[in-house]
Amino acid sequence: MLVKTEGIVLKNMKYKESDGILTVFTRKLGKISVMARGARNSKSQHLAGAQPLCYSDFVLYKGKSMYTLNNVDPIHNHYKLREDLDALSIASFFIELVDTVTIEGQSNNRLFTLFEESLGALERKKGDLSLHILRFLLQFLKYSGYEPYLKGCNQCGTGSSSRWLLNMEEGGLLCQHCQGNSSGIAKPLSKKTIRLANFLMVIDIEDLKELKVHPTLIKELDDVFLRYMMIHLDRTNFKSLDFLSKIRRDY
Questions:
Q1: Is 119 helix (H, G, I), strand (E, B) or coil?
Q2: In a 3-state reduction of DSSP, which class is residue 120?
Q3: Which residues of the chain are in CATH 1.20.1440.120 domains?
Q4: pTM for this entry
Q5: 2-77 in CATH: which number?
Q6: Measured on CA atoms in the order 86, 89, 93, 94, is the torsion positive or negative?
Q7: Could you report how far apart the first and last alpha carbons of the chain are, in Å?
Q8: Alpha-carbon distance 182 to 111, whole Å?
Q9: What is the pLDDT of residues 112-163, one digit of tens each?
Q10: 122 with 90: CB under 8 angstroms?
Q11: How far apart are the C-alpha atoms of 94 and 102, rounded to whole Å?
């Protein structure tokens, strides 16, 4: 049976001499493994569409244990990302996040759209790259089921407090009255940072280039939500994030 779907290549692992096994995040099928025969050959008609970061239309044959590539037609190859170290590092981080949370055969259309539009925005380099990372991270948490509750106190429901903490494990804010009733890791968040986080959860990608934010707010949001993400994904590190952290010192 032939299946057609849009997809973004996350990985292309060598198999035998010229074959590849692709990990593809698709709009219809979620994350899947695809046998791409001859796709690593320089003369293959499938070579361009089988590269990591390439957004393509796929025609796949569904076998018993794996899909086989029948045809691939690139929509956007994102080649410019490979020419910019900063953008490529950020894109690699996005790939690692998507690969970590997606499940074989389970679609997530909102995450797919977020992923593709974020790669396009990185390629165009419109706006602050740090804000692109934070927007992706916060909306990624939202669409992956790890969204923190940032509208008020997670325990009593109040929307007013002189100071706020984010309970990293429970995934919600704590007002000054409820902070003593909670256990686990908690990090302070200023009111301005909370407003920025809520805004980045919903802002359209095209409006991001007009947003100007003080570096102090970006750093506070970055420190808290990278840690939050690590806790909820049960990870201690991401290879791409380690490299990204080094180059971001120059931003």
A1: helix
A2: helix
A3: 80-152+160-250
A4: 0.91
A5: 2.40.50.140
A6: positive
A7: 49
A8: 32
A9: 999 999 999 999 887 788 899 999 999 999 999 999 999 999 999 999 999 9
A10: yes
A11: 12
